[in-house]
Specification:
This protein is of the alpha/beta class and 410 residues long. It has two domains: 3-139 and 296-352, Periplasmic binding protein-like II (D-Maltodextrin-Binding Protein, domain 2), CATH 3.40.190; 143-294 and 372-407, 3-Layer(aba) Sandwich (D-Maltodextrin-Binding Protein, domain 2), CATH 3.40.190. It has helices at residues 9-15, 34-48, 62-75, 89-96, 104-109, 112-115, 120-123, 148-152, 162-174, 186-201, 203-211, 215-218, 221-236, 245-253, 266-272, 308-322, 324-334, 350-360, 368-371, 374-389, 395-407, and strands spanning 24-29, 53-58, 82-86, 126-127, 130-131, 134-137, 143-147, 178-180, 257-261, 281-285, 293-294, 298-301, 364-365. A hairpin with a 2-residue loop joins strand 4 (126-127) and strand 5 (130-131). The longest helix is centred in the middle third of the chain and has 16 residues, at 186-201.
């Protein structure tokens, strides 16, 4: 095992000669569900070993609700000490505007460039040669989670890819089981649509649409297949009237629904409920079609402050997050993958092992949040929310409007 894997947090702090100051550090985040809350406690406990105090600033409602609140506090002159955020164009705008503190010095002292993997986690928050984030975990979105018993107890084989899942839908429906559980919040609908883009359409399609902003291609036959799958998903979702993603997950956990399209953080909810991967639930990366995943995940960012004690506490939190033992315990609790190449997963599930295999094989796509502007993401979100809410909104019309968005996207 790599030496860093067993290095204590105290030893890591001593090795980087951080100042012996203590402060109350307010940390905002949106990790409030069961497995998420367990994960954030791991980071908080590791941080408090430095002598500083974690002041929890949890914001309910997931990222869609939390991001605007976090951004408004930073730009409005009332910054928190640290905040969780996703790798995104929205945070890049705050960095470019000069609101955020760079952590280049501590990153170089601790050798992040040699250990954090993939390098895109650092590149996405590097501006003018300076690093502005502390990657905490790797999360991917492109998964279909299945309750095995919901299929097996009704004479069905557990699906291995999207078309099998769609075909099983009518049988589940006859048994009073919702085929596809999905929360109704806008960010979840947008996530599901873009999972279909990657998983049904493939990584090249995803890049042509969001990378090249090819409106003609977005209006073509290949993207039409994605909208057909979206219409299938809409039918399968009928009756899934919950709002939060973890509420949808518990429909699957309880056998009231057959599956859910959601990120790998869902696995933590399954495990907390006592279900075992492979035996009780299955996971299909890329919906079993195109096994590509995003490798964006979350990171922590530090607004600029004048208080030296707060700055020192920010450094202590940065060290705690990337410390090998924190990475092991945090990813195990949250159901994520570690950002360090020199740590081993703690009792990995088959789903975690599959995610790591895909990651190491380089079958990775960029997040839509880093490919296009927040405005473009918002326009796409508004469109697909309307589409999934209205069974009369035909795929052909939705695709035409989508292509018009891509034509003027930035």
């Amino acid at each position: 095992m790599n030496k860093l894997h067993s290095m204590s947090f105290g030893a890591l702090m001593a090795a980087t000669a951080l100042p012996a100051l203590a402060a109350d550090l307010e940390v905002t985040h949106w990790w409030t569900a069961g497995a998420e809350a367990a994960g954030i406690r791991v980071i908080a406990d590791a941080f408090q070993k430095s002598g500083n105090t974690w002041v929890d600033g949890a914001i309910a409602g997931a990222g869609g609700a939390a991001r605007p609140l976090i951004t408004s506090r930073i730009t409005g002159g009332d910054p928190m000490g640290a905040t969780q955020f996703t790798h995104s164009a929205a945070m890049r705008e705050l960095i470019e505007a000069g609101f955020m503190r760079d952590v280049t010095e501590i990153a170089e002292a601790q050798g992040w460039k040699e250990q954090i993997f993939p390098q895109s986690l650092l590149e996405s928050c590097t501006f003018e040669g300076k690093l502005y984030c502390v990657p905490s975990n790797i999360h991917s979105q492109q998964w279909l989670w299945l309750n095995n018993a919901a299929f097996e107890e009704n004479g069905l084989t557990v699906p291995q890819y999207w078309d099998e899942f769609v075909a099983a839908g009518p049988v589940l429906r006859e048994k009073g089981i919702i085929p596809l559980a999905q929360g109704q919040q806008a960010w979840q609908i947008q996530l599901m649509f873009n999972v279909l883009m990657v998983s049904i359409g493939g990584p090249d399609l995803f890049d042509k649409v969001y990378g090249d902003l090819d409106a003609e291609y977005a209006a073509g036959a290949e993207v039409a297949k994605v909208f057909k799958a979206a219409a299938e998903a809409r039918d399968l979702m009928t009756g899934s009237n919950v709002q939060a993603w973890n509420e949808a997950a518990h429909l699957v956990i309880d056998g009231r629904a057959g599956g859910q399209i959601m990120g790998d953080w869902v696995q933590g909810e399954f495990m907390q409920a006592g279900l075992k991967a492979g035996a009780d639930f299955s996971c299909l990366p890329g919906l079993g079609v195109h096994e590509y995943i995003t490798a964006a995940g979350d990171a922590f960012y530090f607004p600029k402050v004048e208080d030296a004690e707060i700055t020192a506490a920010q450094d202590a939190l940065a060290s705690a997050i990337v410390a090998p033992i924190t990475q092991v315990d945090f990813t195990a609790a949250k159901g994520a993958l570690p950002v360090r190449r020199d740590v081993e997963l703690s009792n990995p599930t088959p789903c975690m092992e599959k995610g790591m295999e895909i990651l190491k094989a380089g079958q990775v796509v960029e997040s839509v949040n880093t490919m296009v502007s927040p405005d473009t993401v918002g326009r796409v979100t508004d469109l697909v929310v309307e589409f999934f809410a209205d069974p009369g909104f035909v795929p052909e019309t939705a695709q035409k409007e989508f292509a018009e968005i891509i034509a003027t996207a930035d």
